[in-house]
From TrEMBL:
<keyword id="KW-0687">Ribonucleoprotein</keyword>
<dbReference type="InterPro" id="IPR001648">
    <property type="entry name" value="Ribosomal_bS18"/>
</dbReference>
<keyword id="KW-0689">Ribosomal protein</keyword>
<dbReference type="InterPro" id="IPR036870">
    <property type="entry name" value="Ribosomal_bS18_sf"/>
</dbReference>
<dbReference type="GO" id="GO:0005763">
    <property type="term" value="C:mitochondrial small ribosomal subunit"/>
</dbReference>
<comment type="similarity">
    <text>Belongs to the bacterial ribosomal protein bS18 family.</text>
</comment>
<dbReference type="GO" id="GO:0070181">
    <property type="term" value="F:small ribosomal subunit rRNA binding"/>
</dbReference>
<dbReference type="Pfam" id="PF01084">
    <property type="entry name" value="Ribosomal_S18"/>
</dbReference>
<protein>
    <recommendedName>
        <fullName>Mitochondrial ribosomal protein S18C</fullName>
    </recommendedName>
</protein>
<dbReference type="GO" id="GO:0032543">
    <property type="term" value="P:mitochondrial translation"/>
</dbReference>
<dbReference type="GO" id="GO:0003735">
    <property type="term" value="F:structural constituent of ribosome"/>
</dbReference>
Amino acid sequence: MNILNRSLVRLPITILQSWTSRCTYVTNITDVPNFDMENPFEKERKQCILCKHNIIPDYKNVKLLSQFQSPYTGRIYGRHITGLCEHKQTEVETEIVKAQSAGLMATYMKEPVFIKSPKLFDVENPLRPHRF
């Protein structure tokens, strides 16, 4: 290998250029197949439920915000449970705090009216499970 490298270094540049041009493979446009299809191996991009339906959380929409709050402790569920993107999760958290400070939402318990409302996610099976 070293002998070959030494001999190539001592050759004039014109000889090296002609040698490399003969060794490269030139493709014609007719040789390349025309693929108009999308990548079949590309994974489908996941979106959070609020981004998918283009919902902007508002502090006056207590029914929506109560879905992201524990019915027993009033704790706001994390992203690994709700499946929200980072931007929507921070929006939901700030709107919950606004609604609680405005007196529209309870801070420690969920309103009994909203306990039987349909679930947006399963609290028992988080999207990203933790070790506990």
